[in-house]
Amino acid sequence: MPIWKSLLSRPDAILALILLGAVVLAGVLAPLIFPGGPWRMVARPFIAPFTDMGHPLGTDALGRDLAVALIYGARTSLEIGLVSTCAAVLFGTAIGGIAGFFGGRVDSLLMRSTEMFQTVPSFALAILLVAIYSPSLLSIMAAIAVVSWPPVARLARAEFLSMRRREFVQAALLSGQSNLRVAWSQILPNVLSPLIVMAALMISMAILFESALSFVGLGDPQVVSWGYLISAGRGVMARSWWLTFLPGFSIMLTIVSISILGDAIGDSQDPHFERKETE
């Protein structure tokens, strides 16, 4: 079933698409909507939400507009999620694809190397990498990609291993096509669906990773992210609940929306989905 049909058949997927689209659009247009940036002090500190229509979501301890910070935070968090996920998926697919296509000693060597990364707790490894290379957007994205690629490699390996035995792949190899061409043109298009579903869920995990790193003081101090806002507001949580609640709520809405869309994309690739819907 086409992806668009699966999305339109589910009201929750439509709502998730609208919410996620609004978050992405706000993040992309942030410099145009608020050219002054999120660091400007525009009013008195600790204005509560909905008490000043000039600053509908309130202000922080320095009088900065929280709504502006949330929009810029969306830009940063989504950028980290997308870039780190793309890097992890590309590297993991390459490693898993080579292992599954060639098998034998190549498979054993690459999978043992993958398991070495999985023996170390992901968050602990991410903290170590960011601390070594100093907190910055680049180091955070690189650290998240490093700890995220092993599951992609295992999935890609399983899919390539299964497709390698298919008759049309064997026929392409017997016709004289190179291994690279067969893997690229015959196998990869048929294994993209599960990889896309996994990538959608990995974006959510990347946003959570960045938030956790910022919460422990390893975020990039030069940019605003949702994790940074939660970390900055935790010291005054008792008197200014909105400084932590609103960024946390934004993270929750975004992650739930991505998860619903990933589930809908997975349903679109289910051969029994259309039959179940008609029943």
TrEMBL record:
<keyword id="KW-0813">Transport</keyword>
<keyword id="KW-0571">Peptide transport</keyword>
<keyword id="KW-0472">Membrane</keyword>
<feature type="domain" description="ABC transmembrane type-1">
    <location>
        <begin position="74"/>
        <end position="262"/>
    </location>
</feature>
<dbReference type="Pfam" id="PF00528">
    <property type="entry name" value="BPD_transp_1"/>
</dbReference>
<dbReference type="GO" id="GO:0015031">
    <property type="term" value="P:protein transport"/>
</dbReference>
<keyword id="KW-1133">Transmembrane helix</keyword>
<keyword id="KW-1003">Cell membrane</keyword>
<dbReference type="GO" id="GO:0005886">
    <property type="term" value="C:plasma membrane"/>
</dbReference>
<dbReference type="GO" id="GO:0015833">
    <property type="term" value="P:peptide transport"/>
</dbReference>
<dbReference type="InterPro" id="IPR000515">
    <property type="entry name" value="MetI-like"/>
</dbReference>
<keyword id="KW-0812">Transmembrane</keyword>
<comment type="similarity">
    <text>Belongs to the binding-protein-dependent transport system permease family.</text>
</comment>
<dbReference type="InterPro" id="IPR050366">
    <property type="entry name" value="BP-dependent_transpt_permease"/>
</dbReference>
<keyword id="KW-0653">Protein transport</keyword>
<feature type="transmembrane region" description="Helical">
    <location>
        <begin position="123"/>
        <end position="147"/>
    </location>
</feature>
<protein>
    <submittedName>
        <fullName>ABC transporter permease</fullName>
    </submittedName>
</protein>
<feature type="transmembrane region" description="Helical">
    <location>
        <begin position="13"/>
        <end position="34"/>
    </location>
</feature>
<feature type="transmembrane region" description="Helical">
    <location>
        <begin position="240"/>
        <end position="261"/>
    </location>
</feature>
<dbReference type="GO" id="GO:0055085">
    <property type="term" value="P:transmembrane transport"/>
</dbReference>
<feature type="transmembrane region" description="Helical">
    <location>
        <begin position="80"/>
        <end position="103"/>
    </location>
</feature>
<feature type="transmembrane region" description="Helical">
    <location>
        <begin position="196"/>
        <end position="219"/>
    </location>
</feature>
<dbReference type="InterPro" id="IPR035906">
    <property type="entry name" value="MetI-like_sf"/>
</dbReference>
